[in-house]
Amino acid sequence: MNTKTMEGLVGARTNMNLLNVPLQVYKEARQKGDTGTMERAMGYVNDYAGKAEEYAEKADDGMKEDAKEAREKAREERENAVRRRKEEREEAEKRLEEVKNSKEIPEKDTAGTGEGAGPDCAAPDSGVQAECVVKAAPLIYTKAGKAEPKQPDSGTNISVSV
Questions:
Q1: pTM (2 decimals)?
Q2: In which element (H, E) is residue 140 found?
Q3: Looking at per-residue confidence, does 106 or 61 come out higher?
Q4: Contact 96, 70 (CB under 8 A)
Q5: Rounded CA gap, 95 and 149, in Å?
Q6: Are 22 and 48 a contacting pair, CB within 8 Å?
Q7: What is the pLDDT of residue 142?
Q8: 147 φ, ψ to 5°?
Q9: Which of 62, 74, 44, 90 is nearest to 1 (CA)?
Q10: Cα dist. 51→9, 23, 31 in Å?
Q11: How many CA atoms within 13 Å lie on the side-chain side of 73?
Q12: How crowded is residue 155: how many other Cβ atoms within 10 Å of its Cβ?
């Protein structure tokens, strides 16, 4: 919160509270018929009311400055986010280009199945970028968390009749 806003709110509230005292004096003087005291009390009431209005204007100015600062901050954050996304996109495009331009063809299966590059791979000397389709054997995880190759089906059939 801006200091102008805080000062304006506190000042307006204080002057409105101070306004109650001369207003009470005015009411008592009216009951007694003392016009001199009534005039002095209304003078104080008007002074405090005027000061309260000035502080209210100060609070409004402070709130406008707060809103302006918030808009500027939001704009800067949006610009930074756009810039970061653009940098990330460029970086991703560079990595993609590196992958496309690389001429390496894996000789071994990277999934750990022990199978080499199969007949689905193109010859590296053909001038065409090679793509290999790696077919990994299905794995079953034990309770201990170790991966074991799936056992081939032994032809066991389970039939259930109801």
A1: 0.47
A2: strand 139-141
A3: 61
A4: no
A5: 34
A6: yes
A7: 84
A8: -90, 130
A9: 62
A10: 12, 15, 28
A11: 6
A12: 5
- Closest-CA residue to 105 (of 78, 127, 79): 127
| Exposure letters 66-80 (e unless 16+ CB within 10 A, then b) | eeeeeeeeeeeeeee
HEC string for 20-78: HHHHHHHHHHHHHCCHHHHHHHHHHHHHHHHHHHHHHHHHHHHHHHHHHHHHHHHHHHH
Three-state secondary structure call for residue 44: helix
Q: Which residues, in sequence order, are CB contacts of 74 under 8 Å at separation 6+?
A: none
* Cβ-Cβ contacts under 8 Å for 19 (sequence gap 6 or more): 45, 48, 49, 52
Distance CA 111, CA 65 (A): 60
| Cα–Cα distance measured from residue 129 to residue 135, given in angstroms and rounded to the nearest whole number | 19
Which range has highest mean pLDDT (43-47, 97-101, 125-129)? 43-47
d(CA 29, CA 18): 18
Report the alpha-carbon angle 123-127-129, nearest 5: 70
Rounded Cα gap, residues 124 and 131, in angstroms: 10
Residue 49 structure tokens: 């009311």
Q: What one-letter code names the amino acid at 26? A: Y
Dihedral sign, Cα of residue 27, residue 32, residue 38, residue 41: negative
- State yes or no: pLDDT of 49 exceeds 80: yes
